[in-house]
Each structure stands twice: as structure tokens, then as C-alpha cells.
Amino acid sequence: MDQETLGSIALLAIVTLLSVVQNAFFASKVEHESKHCNGKGFQRLGSSAFDRVYIANQNCGHTYPTFLAVLWCAGLLCSPAPAAFAGLMYLFVRQKYFVGYLGERTQSTPGYLFGKRIILFLFLMSVAGILNYYLVFFFGSDFEKYIKMITSAISPLLLIP
């Protein structure tokens, strides 16, 4: 594998490994809250604090496969740097959602909505990469340079809440 390809994959791998660490953090919060509330091992029934931690962890876990799929598709098919940036933003937003869910549930709504927008951006990057592949394959027209320029210009706009 050449250095350029490896460098592109490394950005996505870093974001993926950070997301694994974040999942471990969420799981440790569930375990801590379970032991704190019950004094025994892991039990699903507990206080409302445990229920909030457990549900927040479950909600984050349900969107995790979708996040990984669109992150890697966008990075490999379109442009790795904007995809990695969007992936990092998604991890921050997911942290905000998790912490917000532990407080009042209305505090988690901004993180949830922002996360949906980032997933949509990664999805659109993936679709653009697939369309470009087929345009090259069937018509010989390569728009990769323009797609990378557009995604690089749009990705900082993800910072706007």
C-alpha cells in the first residue's frame, strides 16, 4: 500500500479508534452507575439515574454502526480529511448528547439534531463519491477535484449549530 493511501486511511482509523474509546467510556459510566445504585453487579433495574445512563448508552450504540459505515464510505469514496473532520465533530456531538441525556432530556436534543446533520453530510459525501465513480466509469468525466473542493469548503460549516 502506498503512503498516500495509508495516510488517507490513517485519518479514518484514528477517528474510529477514538470512537471505540468513547464507547468504552460510555460503558464504564453504565457499569459505575449500576454499581453505585445497586451495590451489586450489573442490573438493569435501578434508579432513574441508572436508567438515563443506560438509555443514553443504548441510543449511542444504536447509531454507531451507521456512523462507522458512512464515515468509511465518505472517507474512501470521496475525501478522507473532511470525512475525518466530520467524524470528530460527530464524536463531540455524541458526547454532548450523552452528557445532556444524563441531565434533563431536553438538554440532549441539540446533540441529537446536530448528530443527524453530520450523518447526513457523511451520507451525501458517500453518494457523491459513488456518483463520481460511475461518471468516470461510464462517461469518462471525473469530478473528484470539484467534489473534494466542495466537501472541504462545506465541512467547516458543520461547526455552526
Please tell me about this protein's structure.
This protein is mainly α and 161 residues long. The protein is built from five helices and no strands. The chain has helices at residues 3-38, 48-77, 80-102, 109-139, 144-154.
Unreliable residue stretches = none
Tally of alpha and pi helices: 5
Helices and strands, in order, run as HHHHH
Question: How far apart, in Å, are the first and last alpha carbons?
Answer: 39 Å
Largest beta sheet, briefly? Answer: none
Q: What fraction strand?
A: under 5%
- The shape is elongated
Question: Considering DSSP H and I runs of 4 or more, what fraction of the residues is helical?
Answer: over 70%
Report the strand count: 0
Give Rg in angstroms.
Answer: 19 Å
Please, what is the average pLDDT?
Answer: 85
- Would you tell me the structural class of the helices and strands? mainly alpha
Summarize the structure.
It is elongated and about 65 Å long.
Main attributes?
single chain, 161 residues, mainly alpha, 5 helices
Helix and strand layout, with pairings?
Blueprint: H1 3-38, H2 48-77, H3 80-102, H4 109-139, H5 144-154
Helix pairs in contact: 1-2, 1-3, 2-3, 2-4, 3-4
